[in-house]
Please model this.
Amino acid sequence: MPYDLRAGHQTYWRRFGIGSRPTILLHCSLAHSGAWVGLAEEMSPDLQMTAFDLPGHGRSADWDGVADYQYLSTQIAASFITEPVDLIGHSFGATVALRLAAEQPQKLRSLTLIEPVFFAVAAQDAPEMFLLAQPHMDAVKHALAQGDRLEAARIFVGVWGDGRAWDDLSDRYKDGLVRRIHIIEATEGALYHDTARLLAAGGLEGINTPTLLMHGARSEPIIPIINTGLAQRLRHSTTVEIAGASHMMPLSHPYDCAREILKFMDCV
Model:
């Protein structure tokens, strides 16, 4: 479980798996690399996986509040790649994976995007659904502006958590969410307004990497819309829906997710 400077940022990572196929795992916002334990166990015989803590998460150093958060995360991910890898991202981590595929496609053998929260896709393709999602971010931002991190975390987890009510979470878990909730606002530009310009002409259409798009049958309605929009832009993509799953499916349905990912990789 090393800890070292990556893309100028002190970064902690861990490794899973006994296979020979190199794979990078990018976790969701407000989580850490340990969130991959269940899924990694299911894929261990086939893959050699590296998962790092995003800036301000887990044991990695805090985000400085200045650097473009998605760009920094993308550069850290790229620093782990010395040969073409299979890249798997969940939620915000999936948007980092997508940006890496667009900017440095030679580094990837395959791309798996689990519940990508790239809301700007819906803004282009289904504005009415985007408008339904925007008030949630506005409510988080308003609570942060009022200095109420606890309320901001409660609002965020109410939509993008694992389905448990806020009062059912442990105090330690809630404290971690409250400490990191300001990072959600730092991702708004990339996720809602496409500041990385991935949706500009040719931005995604030029990606030739085989891509698996995954969402849960019980996910927020905007996620299948995002995946449909990405599938229309990515030339070599496959979409899979996991029965009974919602946003946190890598944790709640690790076997089902692993089965689909490994089946996809077998064809790459």
Notes: The mean pLDDT is 96. Residues 127-186 form one domain. The chain is about 45% helix and 20% strand. The radius of gyration is 17 Å.
